[in-house]
Structures are given as structure tokens and as C-alpha cells.
Specification:
Helices cover 64% and strands 5% of the residues. By secondary structure, the protein is mainly alpha-helical. α4 (78-104) packs antiparallel against α5, α4 runs parallel beside α7 and α9 runs antiparallel to α14 (325-337). The longest helix is centred in the N-terminal third of the chain and has 27 residues, at 78-104.
Length: 429
């Protein structure tokens, strides 16, 4: 019973933590300066502008509309900027629990999935910062849940919302679509293929594209949209705009102090500092205040091993042609959210992009926990109980690691010495 309601209790507690002093940092955190400004413009004009002139923006509008919803309800202040992502971040814990339930059918493992999601520092930081990536991760996670249920049109709807938040969702659309088509072609032949093929095209092409284009409604209907009148045909102008956006994304090579090669993301080799100041209010000669987008180290280091294990099982399933649904989902999520970045070695990228596939790292850990518990159960009931105790102990260690870095996640003011003690590696500074 406790395990069954644990995800709800964990999500509620996490929401409280996400709201804690959410507006204490009055200035913009990292790229909030762009997205909050965009949200303000959307509320006022329905499209983003610079002053009174059209503004060239490189991300679709849905994520900024989510930020705008918080501003509309709570006001144009730090709390209003960040409240939407705090709410979404808490919901993600519940969605991860629902996915874990569908994959593993174990209240204990479901509770473990939600608990691990709640004690990840990267997820907490994203849930307290008005960036787009948390919304992207949420839409992808909901799409994954519906995909598991084989409700492909609902999955396509949320994939479309993800695409209308950030373009990197295209890889999830492609891989989920390929799996859905594979299922159709392995279960149907001849004329029987017509109907499932039609519905898969609808789910993974028409619906996502329709949602994406609709999200630009403000640009289509406003005379303030950037290059709205580049061509006499509005769709030609829209296509040209997207060519320019693509050119921006593929040519972004400007150096940044916190850029990180994808090879280092899993081990948290170069976390992104979202905010750093040296206030005078800690009672010491030197003070520090930082918001560091650092995943809980113990969780991510163990997650790296777990991902390797899951990919090993996936390769074995390919050889034996005996696919395990949890393995398929985990590999798909990590492949779509992580692997494409390795093809952009010259582009400026950051480790906080990992939030998109972070839930799948959590699921990889839970999958390994299931393997462990299954092995213990085969030995004896006593071994199984000891295995559960061992998993509980491991979770406590991860949670303590999370609490240790909590001041950096919440942006609390500390002494410089205390801050420096948390810098375990020079690459974190």
C-alpha cells in the first residue's frame, strides 16, 4: 500500500521543494533572459518582437507559451517566470512512475523510479529555471507513456508539442515512428497493412506536423512576425524562416566557458553553471551563490553503468530477435535524446541537454534493480528481502548525495570554502 501511493507523496514533496524560495534569485538565470522576454512578447503581441520590430528567434513558441502562462497567473516576476517549469517538473515524477508501472508491474520498482527522479539534481535545477528543456522532456515523457499504451495518436500529439518546443524532438518522432511501423509490418501483411499504416502516418507525421505548424499561429496572423512577408506566399515565407533557423542551429560554433562534449554528459564531467554571484550575506569574508546544473553524481555514475547493461541486453535481443519492451523503450529514449549530439562535435552544446533522456537513465537503473531482485528471489525469500534492503540502502546513499549538493541546486548563499568543498573536480569550476 505504501509503495503504491509513494509516487504521489514523492511528487508532492518534490513540488514543495521546487517552490522553495523559487523567486529568491531576482535576476535572470542563464538563458531565462531570452525565454522570459519571448514569453512577454507572446502575451502582448502573440509573436516575439525586438522593441517594435520583428525578432528572429531560433526556437518554436510552445515552451515560451508555458512560461507565459505562469507570468499571466502569478505576474511578471521571478516566481511567475519559473512556476510553470516547477509544476511540470513535479508532474514528470508521476509520469515516470506511470511508465515504470507499465514496464515493470511492481509497486516497489514504481516507487523506486519516482524516488530516483525526485533526487536528481539536474531535474531539480531544470524545475526551478525558466528554460525550455524541462517542457521538452515532459512532452516526450508523456508521449512515451502513450506509446507504451499503443495510443499512437495521443503519442503523436505530445511529440508534436515537444517538436513545437525544441527541434531535437524530431529524433524521438523518427525512432518512435520506426518502431510503430515495424510493429505494423511484423503483425500484418497484404491488404491488412493499409489501415495500420494509415494510422501510423497520421500519428507520427500528420499530427506532429499539424501541431507544430499550428503552434506558429501568432506568426501567421501577425504582421510583426520575422520575415512574415519575405514571399507573397505565407508558407514560402514560413519555409524560408525555417531555413534560417536551421542554418543558425547547424552553424552555432561560438565558444562558451561551460560547453561540454557529449562524451562527458553521463559522468557529469562539465556541468553548466546557470548562475554565480559573490554576495556579502553569509557571515564570512568570502561568499558564493551558485545554481549548478549538476546531476546527482552517484545517481548518474551508477546510471552510466545501468545504461551500458541495458544496451548489452538490447544487443542480445537483436541477436535472438526476442525484444523486451522495457529494454526497447529505454534504448529508444537514450538513443533519441543522447546519441544525435555526437554528430555535432563542432556545435556549442551543454551537459544540461541531458535532461531530455534523464528519465530513461532512471528507468535503466530500475531495470537493473529488477534483474537484481529477480536473481535474489530465485535464491530464497530471505535473499529477496535482503535484496530489497540493499536497494533501499543504495537509494539512501543517492539521496544523501543529493542533499549534499542541495545548496547548489537551490542557489543558496554559502561561504566560499563551503562552495569550493562541493567542487569535487576542477572541471566543475
Amino acid at each position: 500500500m505504501i509503495a503504491a501511493i509513494a509516487p504521489v507523496l514523492i511528487a508532492l514533496a518534490s513540488f514543495v521543494l521546487r517552490l522553495s524560495n523559487l523567486g529568491s534569485i531576482k535576476s535572470f538565470i542563464f538563458d531565462e533572459v531570452y525565454y522570459v522576454d519571448g514569453a512577454r512578447d507572446l502575451l502582448k503581441f502573440g509573436v516575439e518582437v525586438s522593441g517594435s520590430k520583428p525578432e528572429f528567434v531560433v526556437h518554436p513558441p510552445v515552451g515560451k507559451w508555458m512560461i507565459a502562462s505562469g507570468i499571466k497567473i502569478f505576474g511578471d516576476n521571478p516566481l511567475g517566470w519559473r512556476i510553470a517549469t516547477a509544476f511540470i517538473g513535479s508532474l514528470m515524477i508521476l509520469i515516470v512512475a506511470l511508465i515504470a508501472h507499465r514496464l515493470f508491474y511492481s509497486p516497489l520498482l514504481t516507487a523506486l523510479a519516482s524516488g530516483l527522479m525526485a533526487v536528481d539534481g539536474l531535474a531539480l535545477v531544470h524545475s526551478r529555471t525558466a528554460l525550455l528543456d524541462n517542457f521538452l522532456a515532459f512532452f516526450i515523457l508523456v508521449a512515451t507513456y502513450f506509446f507504451i499504451l499503443k495510443k499512437y495518436r495521443w503519442s503523436g500529439l505530445f511529440l508534436g508539442l515537444a517538436l513545437a518546443t525544441k527541434w531535437s524532438a524530431i529524433y524521438f518522432i523518427a525512432l518512435f515512428g520506426c518502431i510503430a511501423f515495424y510493429r505494423a509490418f511484423t503483425h500484418h501483411t497484404g491488404r491488412e497493412l493499409i489501415r495500420p499504416t494509415f494510422y501510423r502516418v497520421l500519428a507520427f507525421v500528420v499530427i506532429p506536423l499539424g501541431v507544430y505548424v499550428t503552434s506558429w499561429w501568432g506568426w501567421f496572423t501577425s504582421d510583426k512576425g520575422w520575415d512574415r512577408f519575405h514571399s507573397s506566399n505565407v508558407f514560402s515565407s514560413f519555409f524560408y524562416y525555417h531555413q534560417e533557423m536551421l542554418n543558425f542551429h547547424t552553424s552555432l560554433t561560438e565558444k562558451h566557458n561551460y560547453q561540454a562534449n557529449p562524451w562527458s554528459w553521463m559522468i557529469q564531467g562539465r556541468p553548466t553553471s546557470f548562475f554565480y554571484e559573490t554576495p556579502k550575506s553569509c557571515g564570512a569574508d568570502s561568499c558564493s551563490q551558485e545554481v549548478l546544473a549538476l546531476g546527482t553524481p552517484f545517481l548518474w555514475w551508477l546510471g552510466t553503468i545501468a545504461v551500458a547493461v541495458v544496451f548489452g541486453f538490447w544487443i542480445r535481443s537483436l541477436i535472438k530477435r526476442n525484444f523486451d519492451p522495457p529494454v526497447t523503450i529505454i534504448v529508444t529514449g537514450i538513443a533519441a535524446g543522447y546519441l544525435p549530439w555526437f554528430f555535432f562535435q563542432q556545435r556549442t552544446v551543454f551537459s544540461f541537454y541531458a535532461i531530455v533522456f534523464e528519465p530513461f537513465v532512471i528507468l535503466a537503473l530500475v531495470y537493473c534493480a529488477r534483474i537484481f531482485l529477480t536473481a535474489q528471489r530465485r535464491k530464497s525469500d530471505r535473499a529477496y528481502v535482503l535484496g530489497e534492503i540493499g536497494l533501499a540502502a543504495l537509494f539512501i546513499v543517492i539521496a544523501l548525495n543529493f542533499l549534499y549538493f542541495l545548496p547548489l541546486y537551490l542557489g543558496q548563499v554559502t561561504t566560499y570554502d563551503a562552495w569550493h568543498a562541493h567542487m569535487w573536480f576542477e572541471s566543475w569550476i
